[in-house]
Amino acid sequence: MSTTTASAAAGPALPATAVGKPPNPARIRRRRRLAQWGFIAPAVIFMALFFGYPLVRNIVMSFQDYSPSTFFTGESPFNGTANWSNVFNDELFGKALWHTILFTIGSLIGQFCIGLGLAVFFSRRFPLNGILRSLILLPWLVPMVVSGVVWRRILDQDTGVLNSFLGTIGVGGDTPWLTSTSMALISVVLVNIWIGIPFNMVILYGGLQEVPRELYEAASLDGASAWRTFRSITLPMLRPVITVVLVLGFMSTVKILDLILALTDGGPADSTQTLGTLTYQNSFVQLDFGAGAVVGNILILISAVFAVFYLRANRNEGK
After folding, report:
1. For residue 244, what pLDDT is reported?
2. Given this model, what pLDDT does residue 276 score?
3. Given this model, what pLDDT does residue 319 score?
4. Can you tell me the distance from the alpha carbon of 17 to that of 202, in angstroms, rounded to the nearest whole number?
5. I need a surface site. Which of 85, 89, 95, 230 has the fewest CB within 10 A?
6. What does the pLDDT read at residue 147?
């Protein structure tokens, strides 16, 4: 009787197979793998829908005879490499490629040099430091189209503020900033430099905050000049940040479209035509979507090459 009562108090007996049974490692690994894919799946689906599909569709379109009639008929026959051949044989493509190189290099050099100078300047403590840094961020916060429209009014040859100011001080007053084939590209580069300076300054300023102060104190005790300190300490310590700034700056500059459209619309006489504007012109002005896809793929390929460079540079820095 006592034995039966003790057994009932202890609860129902477990099956012999469940007592002391070790967990199945394969099942545990499978559950972990499923959980990992559960977290990754939304990002994979998003990338596939909004990046993968448009990329594949653009590549396929570059080998098709894709015209406005395709939207109604649904027929876009493959034409081999005819679109690629037409683009490469077009004289405007060579000009656009050269202008893209000049525009990108000029913008990167100007943005980086001025941004680095401002970052070094604001790394020192002085009154109104934070307020001035906040004001310099304004060009970066304003939409690029708005900046382009404002600068188009400023650089207008007849009614622009800049020419009026230059005429007042007797330096000039009739410079064709946006209407001269020799000045238009320079003007666009200067405006893009103005827009990109805050980004460079913010990233480089953040990098300067990570440089140990002890290095500067040791250099000061050794009698190193300001230039020697900058060249031997600041630049080497900023190398990973500089790589990020230049690569990201390149990838955002090489494909700029809205700024150039707002300022010059690719003119005058195609003197500010770049690969970005050529893609827009082929696709939405001439309605040659196949040629526009070709130029777009070239831009994607250029950006991908520099993305690989960026990843390899970061990997080498990590080692």
Report:
1. 85
2. 93
3. 57
4. 64
5. 89
6. 92
CA distance 16 to 29: 26
Q: Which two tokens stand for residue 99?
A: 């202008």
Question: Nearest CA to 111 among 183, 46, 203?
Answer: 203
**What does pTM read for this prediction?**
0.84
- DSSP-assigned beta bridge partners for residue 78: 64
The residue ranges of the chain whose pLDDT is under 70 are 1-22, 313-314, 316-319
Instruction: Return the pLDDT at 124.
Output: 83
Question: Residue 32 half-sphere exposure, CB side, CA atoms within 13 Å?
Answer: 6
Strand partners, 313: none
- Long-range pairs for 272-279 at CB < 8 Å and ≥24 separation? 272/99, 272/103, 272/184, 272/185, 272/188, 273/92, 273/95, 273/96, 273/99, 274/96, 274/99, 274/100, 274/103, 275/96, 275/97, 275/100, 275/299, 276/100, 277/96, 278/92, 278/93, 278/96
CB hemisphere CA count around 312 (13 angstroms):
6
pLDDT at 318: 56
How many other CB atoms are found less than 10 A from the CB of residue 293? 25
